[in-house]
User: What shape does this take?
Amino acid sequence: MSARTRADPEASAERADASRPRQEGPADLRLVPPALAAWATAAVMLHAPPGWAVTTVVASVLAAAVLLSTRGRLLLARRRVTRRARVTAHAVAATLLCVAAAAGSAGLHGADVRSGPVPELAREYARVLAEVEVTADPRLTRPRVSGNRMAPVSVLIEAEVRRVERTGAAARKTRAPVLLIVDTGDRQPAAPAAGRGSPWLSLLPSTRLRVEAGLAPAREGGDRFAAVLRVDGREGPRAVGGSSAPQRLAGRLRAGLREATEDLPEDARALLPGLVVGDTSRVTPELDRAFRETDLTHTLAVSGANFTILLALLLGPPGLAQRAERRGLAPRLGISLRATAVLGGVLSLAFVVVCRPDPSVLRAAACGSVALLALATGRRRSLVPALATAVLLLVLYDPWLSRSYGFLLSVLATGALLTLAPRWSEALRRHGVPPRIAEALAAAGAAQALCAPVVAVLSARVSLVAIPCNLLAEAALAPATVLGFLALAAAPVAMPSAEAVAWCAGWPAGWIARVARTGAAMPGAGVDWPGGWTGAAALGAVTVAALLVGRRLLRHPWWCAACALLLALLVVQPRPLVRTITGWPPPDWRMVMCDVGQGDALVLAAGDGAGVVVDAGPDPEPVDRCLSSLGVTRVPLVVLTHFHADHVAGLSGVLRGREVGGIGTTGLEEPADQAAAVRRAAAAAGVPVTRVGAGERRRAGDLSWEVVWPPPGGHPTVEGPNDASVAMLVRTGGLRLLLLGDLEPPAQRALARSPAARDLAGVDVLKVAHHGSAYQDPGLLDLAAPRLALISTGEDNSYGHPAPGTVEVLRARGAAVLRTDRDGALAVVPGTGGDEEVAVARH
Assistant: This one.
């Protein structure tokens, strides 16, 4: 037989190996224990006393040395040590050495936030002059209500202090991670562009600044900052060193993508820069909430999935990971094996620099780099060892990742796709599910099963729409990512082409946003779940039980269909079915006091699917949910009693997806910034804004009301927004309701003496003024003499609302007192006759 003939079987084997999966045994898990041990050690040692890290390092190294030396003596003396024993000894020694390395790295990083001049000065709340280096992109704080006002917008910047100087003392060199909180001076935080013009937002990582700031201690616990620096940012940043060339290039690319997406529809304009480079500056709180409710936050900003898509274009899809490496775009372009690995490495580095080193980005880039290294050496890819290696290297490089929930979720999702998903996909195919559908279902289900307990720790909520929403969004993720990166690359050289590509990318990006908004709008999109790790353990147990039951259900298609129908009903919650089961909303409700926390929001029935809204609460989501549960799709009028944030900040939730006829407000437009924000929101929705005053009478269906305060020309007692509250006497279903807004005692006394006072005597329902505060006028309470007193207040609020004295006074006058912090949403319905003229239903 010739040499050529003898070589043919080997060549045939190689060709066959290149065309079909390699038949391998169980996954290689040898690197998993060292990676997990290093992860756990780093998480513990970051906040442990310094001596613990040193002790752990010494003990682990000594234990590894003793183990290996003992094994060596046994080999020399007896030569009867089994191969399994040798492998076990090596594995244990490797794990111990990884523990030692993690303890040392975590001890050094932990010392940065505990030692040095910065923590010392922070404990004294000193005023300092510091030189800092920016380490991450600046970001704006989210709008939030603080008391009765919106909190001002601030810019948050992660940085490292390099030099610090206290007044009258010499400058000291150091290296301490800090968080800069920059007050931009913007006092209109509800404006869409609030704070976005600040020069602090244009700072790039690696820029050096000189700032005068007040130091304060960082939050105790898992925070990675040595201190917080509060900076007055109205004068702008003072740079003492420019950013690096790679960061300047990344900044130009990111700015080019923002420009290319400027003319896209709102959701696509906000989402596409986030998908491609992690720029979420345009994402509104409502869109962010929708993605959180549907567990789609990994698509809201750039993540490992995006890098996986790019790597798949180069190397081939992850499904071919166990085949020969010559797949993807590289061989079609004639790029050699090692050149492909080099190109992939450059792609990984560029991806991290442009998209910023977030936990999921780092994990994906490290995992991809390990796979590329295997490719460069001609070895086959093995993704489980690659993931374990990535975790190990990243935890050693940055131990703070061991305490990052984002990193944990990223690793869990990837691990689920590599271990559980293939088995589940195969099981589904055995039961007749088409392969593509089986793979998609298995991937989404596996990731959700492992990640849901961690999400419950963070949000105390479990999404019931996560799997279908992820399935629907997955189809659009790849085209949005690829087109988005093409637009990113084209923007610096050909902006018209970049805009055209971005327009194409806007379609799949918009689809993802619509999936998130639609899923979050479902009445049963999620269920509340106990937070903390106890709740996570309970959810894990429930998940395991559901999987065991699910395996049996797969054998019974009709039972599967019944469970799917039950889940669909739970998510959609048809209103007739919900009313039958829960009794909410009551069939003949006349007024509902929504549970919106520390604020006010009431709904007055105005016909089928219609309701007049009085105040909107401090947050859009609770009032939106309340209106949805009532089936209110038309709002003839929104009455904003005054412009404090706990009454108007939720206005966008009322306007969302509803036909609104108009907005009526008090004549005193204070605070001015919040009044301006109301007008901007109304203008954006095309809703007219008018002023209302005493004497105005209106009707909607069988609902009628009269405004009894404030007088049109003002009044001496009106000294602030509370006393300017719109008060209304409402008549509906034979009931009389008095709504007092936040009137203070001077205005209440004036109202009790006004011409409208004769109509206020003996009302059926009183909406108690100012969340039941202690400041009430006894004369007005005596005049109103309500049968039912309702108080809207938040649970465990810091104001002590409602005041115990106010509750006792109301009860002493014969009123039944109900409050939203204890009783939830409250619905007023006509009584059933006799002396019972009014009844109330609780939600």
